[in-house]
UniProtKB/TrEMBL annotation:
<feature type="domain" description="ABC1 atypical kinase-like">
    <location>
        <begin position="89"/>
        <end position="331"/>
    </location>
</feature>
<dbReference type="Pfam" id="PF03109">
    <property type="entry name" value="ABC1"/>
</dbReference>
<keyword id="KW-0812">Transmembrane</keyword>
<dbReference type="InterPro" id="IPR011009">
    <property type="entry name" value="Kinase-like_dom_sf"/>
</dbReference>
<dbReference type="InterPro" id="IPR004147">
    <property type="entry name" value="ABC1_dom"/>
</dbReference>
<feature type="transmembrane region" description="Helical">
    <location>
        <begin position="519"/>
        <end position="537"/>
    </location>
</feature>
<protein>
    <submittedName>
        <fullName>AarF/ABC1/UbiB kinase family protein</fullName>
    </submittedName>
</protein>
<keyword id="KW-0472">Membrane</keyword>
<comment type="similarity">
    <text>Belongs to the protein kinase superfamily. ADCK protein kinase family.</text>
</comment>
<keyword id="KW-1133">Transmembrane helix</keyword>
<dbReference type="InterPro" id="IPR050154">
    <property type="entry name" value="UbiB_kinase"/>
</dbReference>
<keyword id="KW-0418">Kinase</keyword>
<keyword id="KW-0808">Transferase</keyword>
<dbReference type="GO" id="GO:0016301">
    <property type="term" value="F:kinase activity"/>
</dbReference>
């Protein structure tokens, strides 16, 4: 039943409408009285919604799981309790019957699978919503991994994207998220990035590009792919004997150095970012394998993102600013990346970045029971939500990839110092960028002098900021509360009118389907009236 297009769209859209109504009603009932008790009830509501989303995503699979994984990294638009509930949502679904997999193989190869394979495992080695992986043996004795697209996947993903178009339309019309997310561009990014997973030929091409790019990197291996057996729905690649990189017992059993592995893995990811081009957009533990000799194997290049040359230059500004504690430069880089809108409070944001970096360097972020850290992270999320900060769509999957990757690193080595690992690489990368342009320019020399003296120049400002902190916080909270009240009043009226339009339109559709004329007339009247109300409300 979950594969029926109409039912999938209905379940996804109806859940979104239910969530929007619950939020609107909650805000209306508690307008102007945000107390600790109300905040607790709000957290209970969004946690319940996250659980319902997770339950539906696990039932439906497909795009719902990937969207949930994406939302779990979006602290800029999602409440903390929602994020916590979705954390760890994995793309694991029951295997389909082996006979159905054989049918796909033979449809794609136009011959019996035995013509190419001597053996194919009875059970899938790995199973996800898009494809299943089996172990096989070619006629020449080579062991291979055979990835086969699940039957009906094209139809399921198309239905999910149709549902997402409706949900995004609702979000654009009735939620405040449009201040922080370009939904139209995000939808395009989703279709290009996730849709590319449906074509295994693209995955082969991506894998080959990564193999060429990292051929000289010691201790890193990209599997060999076989063109002659690969089609749009079948991918054949080298079989790798190893374990997930987060399998600590495997690492200890083979006497491997967790710290050295984490350093090498970090450099592998950093190289993808610093030099632009493609980056692996789904670097979870299952897509990073470890051989018994410690070799890191990167697999599954279905989800790939791209960083432009211009954006890599902006990343250089941010990295230099963080390393040299020049937080104004960090904000300049974020503006170049289109993360900050012109009317952002730069002093407030610079202070937030500085506090976050200081907390990381002092290891406070590792003390998860610390009240100071909890308050700091809450402040970061509040600032991101209330300031004109947006996530450009092209960075949506980069943020998700970074979050996943950092999680893998901390499983490997909880004490890993990302700044210490990044500093020499960033400086080396910065010098190569400038060498490519010729001799250092005056602007480069001046900026590096300013960066090098950053800590000394920052001391007077830090003292002033410390003395002004209570007053700034008071103004910030007053402005935040006023903006929220005004926006909620404008939003809720339009939300009710718009949702009523959608519900009455659904009534029209059902009455046409079942040819119930009285219900058709009633639904039409309500639809026209709600549309008029929606346009009239400003």
């Amino acid at each position: 039943m979950n594969q029926v297009t109409y039912l999938r769209i209905y379940r996804i859209v109806s859940m979104a409408i239910r969530f929007y109504l619950q939020v609107a009603l909650f805000q209306r009932r508690n307008r102007g009285k945000w107390t600790p008790v109300v905040e607790q009830r709000w957290n209970e509501l969004v946690t319940r919604q996250a659980k319902q989303y997770k339950e539906l995503a696990l039932k439906l699979g497909g795009l719902m799981i990937k969207l949930g994984q994406f939302l779990s990294t979006r602290a800029d638009i999602m409440p903390p309790s929602f994020l916590a509930e979705l954390e760890g949502l994995t793309d694991r679904v029951p295997s389909v019957p082996r006979k159905d997999i054989i049918d796909v193989l033979e449809q794609e190869w136009n011959v019996e699978h035995g013509n190419y394979l001597d053996e194919l495992s009875d059970q899938a080695i790995a199973s996800a919503s898009i494809g299943e992986v089996f172990k096989g043996r070619l006629k020449n004795g080579t062991e291979v991994a055979v990835k086969v697209q699940r039957p009906g996947t094209d139809r399921i993903i198309r239905a999910d994207f149709q549902a997402m178009r409706i949900v995004i339309w609702l979000a654009k019309k009735f939620t405040p998220f449009t201040k922080q997310v370009d939904f139209d561009q995000l939808y395009v990014e989703m279709t290009e990035t996730i849709g590319a997973e449906l074509n295994f030929v693209r995955e082969l091409q991506n894998g080959r590009a990564f193999a060429d790019r990292f051929a000289e990197m010691s201790g890193v291996h990209i599997p060999v792919y076989y063109d002659e057996y690969t089609t749009r729905r079948v991918l054949v690649m080298e079989w790798i004997e190893g374990a997930r990189i987060t399998d600590i017992s495997f690492i200890e059993e083979h006497g491997l150095d967790r710290h050295e592995i984490s350093e090498r893995l970090f450099i592998l990811f950093l190289e993808q970012v610093l030099y632009g081009g493609q980056f692996h957009a789904d670097p979870h533990g299952g897509n990073i394998l470890l051989k018994p000799d410690g070799t890191i194997v990167l697999i599954d290049f279905g989800m790939i993102g791209t960083i432009s040359e211009r954006d890599s230059q902006a990343i250089l500004l941010i990295a230099e600013g963080i390393l040299f504690k020049n937080y104004e430069q960090v904000l300049d880089g974020l503006e170049d990346l289109r993360f900050l809108l012109p009317n952002a409070d730069r002093d407030l944001l610079a202070d937030a970045v500085e506090r976050l970096v200081a907390a990381y360097e002092s290891n406070e972020l590792m003390q998860m029971d610390s009240f100071v850290v909890e308050r700091l992270l809450q402040d970061m999320q509040d600032i991101v939500r209330t300031q004109p900060v947006q996530l450009p769509a092209e960075f949506a999957f980069f943020g998700r990839a970074t979050s996943i990757f950092v999680g893998v690193l901390h499983v490997l080595d909880p004490k890993v110092d990302l700044f210490a690992l990044a500093r020499p690489r960033v400086l080396e990368w910065a010098s190569t960028k400038r060498e490519g342009k010729g001799i250092f320019g005056k602007e480069d020399v001046f900026r590096w002098i300013l960066n090098s003296t950053g800590p000394a120049r920052a001391f007077p400002k830090k003292l002033i900021n410390f003395l002004d902190e209570p007053e700034r916080i008071r103004h910030y909270l007053e402005n935040k509360e006023g903006r929220e009240r005004e926006h909620q009043r404008n939003l809720q009226s339009r939300m009710f009118a718009g949702i009523f339009s959608l519900l009455s339109f659904s009534g029209i559709s059902l009455s046409v389907w079942f040819w119930h004329e009285p219900f058709l007339w009633v639904s039409s009247v309500f639809f026209v009236g709600s549309l008029w109300a929606f346009r009239a409300i400003r």
